[in-house]
Amino acid sequence: MTGREGVVLLAAAAVAALLGVAVIPLLRRLRLGQSIRNDGPATHLVKAGTPTMGGILILGGLATGLAVAGQFGPRLALALLAVLVYGLLGFLDDFLKVARRRPLGLKARYKLLWQAAGGLALGLVVTYLPGHGTDVRVPFTGHQLELGSLYPAFVMLLAVGTVNAVNLTDGLDGLAAGLILIALATYAFLAAVLGVAEITAFCLATAGGCVGFLVHNRHPARVFLGDTGAMALGGALAAVAVLTRTELVLPIIGGVFVAETLSVMAQVASFRLTGRRVLRMCPLHHHFELGGWAETRVVRVFWATGLVLALLGIAGMVGGAP
Questions:
Q1: Cβ of 72: how many Cβ atoms within 10 Å?
Q2: Which residue among 24, 159, 258, 263 sits deepest, i.e. has the most Cβ atoms within 10 Å of its Cβ?
Q3: What percent of the chain is modeled with pLDDT above 90?
Q4: Contacts of 45 (CB under 8 A, 6+ apart)
Q5: Average pLDDT for residues 64-73, to the nearest whole number?
Q6: For residue 150, what pLDDT is reported?
Q7: How wide is the angle at C-alpha 309 spanned by C-alphas 303 and 225, nearest 5°?
């Protein structure tokens, strides 16, 4: 990491942390507190009322980091647009849950439609970027898979899956933000290796925002990401994977997010087909909590797993280099 890149990361972290000092009390005064599901772990009931929509701290850090970096280009514009599109959806969902007291927020079909439209638009636009193409690199091989006209639909599925996977993972103090930090730091490295400077700056600025956010989100959390932050970060992660042409590396780097999503799918399928649950509770992090693990232990183990998978993703990218 160069001195300039370090400054980007530190500036974003400092601003996000300082914003929390002012914003968290404001969220409390506005009574924008998280409601806790009664069917979740009983130990989480004490978290009721903790301010949510904390993702705005990360966005403040992101803006500052990019201002320091001084980078701009079409790929950065698309990454920021993805953050805006999915962050706005998350904000609307949070607003309906917290301010309007609708427990389920925006109806699932409307969220899915919004997510799919955003992903499809990204897939269509990137095909016009110079040198992008419609092929995807296969990790650990020297091969590329040409998707042709199916590429926009592939990006749509990647975006929808990533946004929802990050949102599902956001259930323990520091868990999702820490994993996103690891993933984006990894992508900053990959973008630098691939020579995509504007995406390197974007990843570092967003990762720095996560560092500053974790100052307030570590256990016991004083603020939660909310859907505002989780969906914005999921959109950011999907966008950088597409814009660095490492789409198939994302499921490796984000393997913990994949596991969390699969745990929900397996639980639902098993219960509907057999009437039995395969896990004590889903998503996966709750299964370990109900198995007697402390929340902080679950987070540390999941972070460590995310770090190992990030290194595996880098290896897959290097192994798949032409």
A1: 12
A2: 159
A3: 79
A4: 36
A5: 91
A6: 97
A7: 40
